[in-house]
Amino acid sequence: MQIISTIAELRTRLSNERAIAFVPTMGNLHEGHLNLMRLAREHGSCVVASIFVNPLQFGPNEDFDKYPRTLEADCAKLQNLADVVFAPSVNEMYPTQQTVFVEPPPIANELCGAARPGHFRGMATVVLKLLNIVQPQVALFGKKDYQQLHIIRRMVAQLNLPVQIVGGETVRAADGLALSSRNQYLSGAERAEAVVLYQTLQGLRQAILQGGRDFEQMEQQAVEALSARGWKVDYVAVRNRPDLQPAGPVQSDLAQCDLVILAAARLGNTRLLDNVEVSL
Question: Global pTM?
Fold first, then answer.
């Protein structure tokens, strides 16, 4: 496995590769990332991971400075999974002030975008830069960041990028909590409580499968239940999977309807994200 920190060296290393599978990360790797790496091996003969904490996608009051940077440990975990690790500095990725940005679709201003203005603009810009640098045939992203994956798919389709986007299933702890680098911020008591977010989404999923169709009321009840337990809820939302627009009343005799229930909420100082898919 090679660890490369410059764009020029990476391009030279990859110049003769014809089946590159790429997993972009911000490091502090956990089993969710490693699962994507294993999946990447099924899609390419050369597997590349990037480790880069992207300042463009952090707001002024967010955790960019304290976001865990664990390059040495990350590379040890990737030893038998990646052929190349691209770990550039901020100056390598942004040698001059970035003045050209990707303008994401309107959905970027809803859900997580409403709580984190500019986040998806910064995310989409760095992902486009990374795809241009690595030039993979396949790129893999986790479904835990469902809105992010949706926006990346739109960007790739509408900008005609020659890359296939693959979504990897969310990896969970034994009690159901979605794995996340930010989970380590949780205290012991918060970690025990954190699984309630997934349980809430599963309860909504079950209610929909059993015929519940008043999605606005269901969302509001979920928000109130979480708030009563001390969560600061950004949103709980039932959306149509193809476009992430709010789900309207669904006819019970509809042959097929693909929904996703998304949520973001803070427990103490830690913002947790989760979702579950529902097919009717």
Answer: 0.95
